[in-house]
Amino acid sequence: MTNGTRDLAAKVKSRSDDMVRKEEVRNQVRSEATLSERVLIEASAEVITKVRMEHRGDIRRARDIANALFDELGAECADIDATGAGVIACMNG
Fold first, then answer.
1. 41: Cβ–Cβ under 8 A, 6 or more apart, which residues?
2. Residue 17 and residue 25 in contact, taking contact as beta carbons nearer than 8 Å
3. Distance of CA 9 to the CA centre of its chain
4. Mind listing the pLDDT tens digit for each residue in 32-71?
5. Cα separation of 88 and 81, whole Å?
6. Residue 1, CB half-sphere, CA atoms under 13 Å: how many?
7. In this structure, are residues 9 and 1 in contact, taking their beta carbons and an 8 Å threshold?
C-alpha cells in the first residue's frame, strides 16, 4: 500500500470508529429516555389510580350521608303529616 492509501484507510477507520461511538451513545440515550418514560408513565398512573380510588370512596360516603338525610327528612315529613292530620281532625271534630 502506498502512503496515500494508508492515510485514507486510517481516516475511514477513524470516521467509522467515531460513527460507532456516536451510535452507541445515541442508543444508550434512547434506552434511558425510554426507561425514564416508562417510569414516568407508571408513577403517573399510580397517582391517578390512587386519586380515583379516593374519589370513589368519597362518592360512596357522600351517597350514604345523602341517603341517611333523605331517610331522616322522610321521617320528619311523616311526623308533620300525622300531626297535621290529627290537628285537622280535632278542629273538625
1. none
2. no
3. 56
4. 888 888 899 999 999 999 999 999 999 999 999 999 999 9
5. 10
6. 8
7. yes
DSSP designation for 78: H
d(CA 25, CA 44): 28
Interatomic CA distance for residues 35 and 29, integer angstroms: 10
* Rg (alpha carbons) of the chain, rounded to whole number: 40
Q: What CA–CA distance (Å, rounded) separates 78 from 75? A: 5
pTM (2 d.p.) = 0.51
* Domain boundaries of the chain, sorted by first residue: 1-67
AA letter at 36: S
Q: State the Cα torsion 6-8-14-20 to the nearest 10°.
A: -120
d(CA 10, CA 7): 5
